[in-house]
Amino acid sequence: MKIVKLANYLFNSTARDRSDFFWLLVFPIILLVILMLIFPSLYEPKEVTFSLTFLSQNGMFSEIIERVFKELSIGKHKIFRLSILRNTEENLNNEIEKLRRRNIDLIVEIPEGFDAQMLNWFMLNNLGVTASSPTINIYSLKHNISSESAYLTVKNILQKLELEFIKKVGYKLREVESEIELIGIKSTFSYIDFIYPGIVIFVVFMTGLFGIGLHLTWLKESGILKRIMVTSLPKSSFIISYIISRIYLIMLQITLISLIAKFLFKTTVNPLSLSFIGYTSLTVICLSSLGFFLASVSKNVSSANAISQILNFPLQFLGGIYFPVSGVPWAIRWLVLINPITYLASGIRDALGIMESPYPLYVTLIVPMAWIIFCLLFTYRRFKLEEV
Questions:
Q1: The whole model's pTM is what?
Q2: 87 and 221 part of one domain
Q3: Inter-axis angle of helices 191-206 and 27-38, to 10 degrees?
């Protein structure tokens, strides 16, 4: 009962502190809302329709291609807003100018004599003569996401049509059936599913640095910790009570974040899943041990605050909390590789099927555990030396 009462007292003292209450409970919620307001298009996936001009020719193969694009440009879930024109030099120049002004996304041009070239290609291949296949001209705008996406879509369609043309002239293709099983892959990317585990890691990280590291340092500097140690209360009881009080705080933080993510932003992540609970528990132990490490190396609140500020932003942003970290220069790549948050964020997102981790499962577990062992051993040794 003494342990529980002391844990309740420590938790209540933190909750009554307005500064701690804001930064540890209110600020993470504000951050989540701001991120979701900045990136609404990422958590509300919408169907994309490309504006496409099709420059046609007379002929069987040209008409087949035209018919396919027409089919893809009708209905509620159409892919293209299609404009069909005759392939003339004037029309081509006008449409290229529209493309440059970004009024359209793509131009598909069937060149003159396309059908004759197709038939000639099939005949030569039938005779065993290797011939270059006819080309369809596609005009896209470089460094424009919409235009480049439209190009990739049309390219896939034309590759599929090439097989249909081969069947059309009498060639038989051997179709091979295959079974594909998708495990842990989401049909659409949702930013709330991506950022939700990141915000959970963030609140635990903030509690570790400031709610444990800075708070314990203040207890040491003010002499409160020393007075507690000379009471009849066993040292182990105080440590257990302090850890329980921080667990209260972290559980409250995660509960608030989970409710907002689930009911306001409609995340599909299940906070009660074993994967989420397991990695969240590992995150709590790892980042809490980092807080104890900070308290052990800091002589006063000023030095603890300086160290925590130095660690705060680099570990957050280079840990992949808010966005994937890849392709960074080798000058800072080593900070990504030694950062425990990197493996916690990658591991939990991979386990939940949000994004594939670039690291094996055992690495996402071993590296945080190595940090836990190092921080706790160092903290224990440092406090033992201070007692001497």
A1: 0.64
A2: no
A3: 160
- 140 and 249 assigned to the same domain: no
Domain that residue 62 falls in? 50-168
- Taking the C-alpha atoms of residue 26 and residue 343, their distance in angstroms, rounded to an integer, is 26
Residue 15, domain member (yes or no): no
Say how far apart CA 63 and CA 72 lie, in whole Å: 14
Q: Is 320 helix (H, G, I), strand (E, B) or coil?
A: coil
Q: Which of 112, 137, 168 finishes a domain? A: 168
Q: Rounded to an integer, what distance in angstroms lies between the CA atom of residue 107 and that of residue 234?
A: 78
Token pair listed for 153: 């879509």
CA distance 91 to 112: 14
Q: What is the dihedral of CA 197, 200, 206, 209, to 10 degrees?
A: -70
Domain co-membership, 73 together with 214: no
What pLDDT is attached to residue 297? Answer: 92
Please state, rounded to an integer, the average pLDDT across all residues of the chain.
83
CA distance 304 to 210: 9
The confidence score (pLDDT) of residue 382 equals: 85
In a domain, 273, yes or no: yes
| pLDDT over 60 at 376, yes or no | yes
- 318-363 pLDDT, tens digit per residue, is 999 988 787 677 778 889 999 999 999 999 998 888 887 888 999 9
Q: CA-based Rg of the chain, rounded to a whole angstrom?
A: 30
For residue 207, what are the CA distances in angstroms to 22, 31, 91? 12, 15, 64
Mode of pairing for the β-strands spanning 137-140 and 50-56: unpaired
Grade residue 285 by pLDDT with cuts at 50, 70 and 90.
very high
Instruction: Quote the DSSP letter at residue 231.
Output: S
